[in-house]
Amino acid sequence: MRPRVEWLRATVLATSLAFVMTGPVPAASPVLPDTVPAEFKVTDFLLDNGMEVVVIPDHRAPIVTHMVWYKIGSADEPPGKSGIAHFFEHLMFKATTHHAAGEFDRAVSDIGGSNNAFTSYDYTAFHETVAPSVLEQMMSFEADRMRNLILTDDVIKTERDVILEERRSRIDNNPQAVLDEEVDATLWQNQPYRIPVIGWMQEMEQLNRTDATAFYDKYYRPNNAVLIVAGDVQPDAVRALAEKTYGKVARGPDLPPRVRPVEPEQNTKRTVTLSDARVSVPSFSTQWVVPSYHTAKPGEAEALDLLAEILGGGNRSRLYQALVVKQGIASNAGAYFQGTMLDDTNFTVYGSPRGDARLADIEAAVDAEVARIASGGVTPGELEKAKDRYVRSMVFARDKQDSMAEIYGSTLATGGNVQDVQQWPDRIRKVTADEVKAVAARYLVLTRSTTGYLLPQQQAGN
Question: pLDDT digit string (tens) for 296-338?
């Protein structure tokens, strides 16, 4: 679970616990060309209770993806309550005043659909993929659990045991995940992204019904949620169903702006090393704090996206071609930029040796490629090819309605809007080679980086 954002190239690539989930769901970057047929035009509107609704028509198959995104993630948790956002994601599948525990899941299964949920630093989302004929039923279930959960001490204890075991199996039993947590805690000195989404064990063990109820009452409200409906539907019909179901849920108190602690100036190079007997091939990753699409100056985030693509975004990238294909010293090498975040984010390069090559040689070669772009920039040809790959991937993303729902949902949940998604290809096309060089020189400075090393046990102390 290493790279965090190469989502567009294959449509799906899971994160290094950039979010924790009950099922694998991709992190998304804002993508969609605005030159689409009229029958595919996106519609967005607000219900009277403040719930935002986005409808993405796609009539090629008789299915629909229904997603509810809450603008609450692990980075919004109260101090000392790490893991409460992910914990509450689990609790949302329990009984309500109208439905027994498991009834929602059985209803989805009985009609041959699928459902799941996931938690990230900046949002929590719940989703179903079903036939359009049962969309109203899905809306009714989701609207019901938005406010009518029954939270007892027994329910809390049982589900708390589940998330504790999830942490043991997914994190504590996985050397890469353990290292990733320590790297995040080192990279971020003040920002809550330094705390794992799943939470710290000692704080998870203390989560209780009072914590859960307070969290539920504060954040699970229609005016803190975005509804995305993508598939074989008509906007007017979706509006009528949304008003009939979600529209009956009372608006909650207005929440204050999501203002989080500001990261101090990064002015040191830090390293984190983990040696483990279960590791057979060493690896490294180097990260920098950089702006996200929500915090960047105009054009910077787009330039960082293209920098990641050119530097290490697949088998056409500089790192892959130089280290894997030509020199044959790396088993893998790449770069990624996690652009869709509410606050500043990270830019990462990584690699592993091949054969008799040393990890130090891979790291030096990767650093050299980063420095080469920072000093010499990129060629017009490789920049245009990178843009073409991105724009093509945006077009291909339309082939999966759930991908489109995730794109819009993650963007709207992190401070963006529908226009940001639709205008993104044009902004990518406008990025210049000088802008790519500038962000590399400004942000990818080794003296302000954090590097994590995952080593076999026998390399301890080397």
Answer: 999 999 999 999 999 999 899 999 999 999 999 999 999 999 9
Residue 13 per-residue DSSP state = -
The model's pTM is 0.91
Intervals of the chain under pLDDT 50:
1-34, 460-462
| Residue 356 to residue 461: CA distance in whole angstroms | 19
Closest CA to 142 of 92, 102, 196, 97: 92
What are the distances in angstroms from CA 27 to CA 123, 137, 192, 324, 359? 11, 27, 18, 26, 29
**Per-residue exposure over 381-397, b if at least 16 CB sit within 10 Å of its own CB, e if not:** ebbeebbebbbebbeeb
Give per-residue burial for 117-132: e unless 16+ CB within 10 Å, then b.
bbbbbbbbbbbbbbeb
248: exposed, middle or buried (C-beta count within 10 Å: 0-12, 13-18, 19+)? middle
Q: Tokens 């169903």: give the residue.
A: 241
Facing residues of 288 across strands?
347
CB 162 within 8 A of CB 62: no
- CA dist 235 and 215 (Å) reads 32
Structure tokens at 426: 């044009």
The helix (run of H) or strand (run of E) holding residue 454 is strand 450-456
Burial of residue 292, with CB atoms counted within 10 A of its CB: 0-12 exposed, 13-18 middle, 19 or more buried: buried
The pLDDT score that the predictor gives to residue 39 is 59
Verify whether residue 182 is a known catalytic residue: no
Q: Look over the chain and give the mean of its residue pLDDT values, rounded to a whole number.
A: 91
Q: What's the one-letter identity of residue 414?
A: T
- φ, ψ of residue 154 in degrees (nearest 5): -65, -40
The strand order across the sheet containing 330-337 reads: 270-276, 450-456, 283-290, 345-353, 330-337
Active-site residue, selected from the candidate residues 6, 52, 77, 89: 89
Q: How far apart are CA 234 and CA 27, in angstroms?
A: 27
- Are 361 and 331 in contact, with CB atoms under 8 Å apart? no
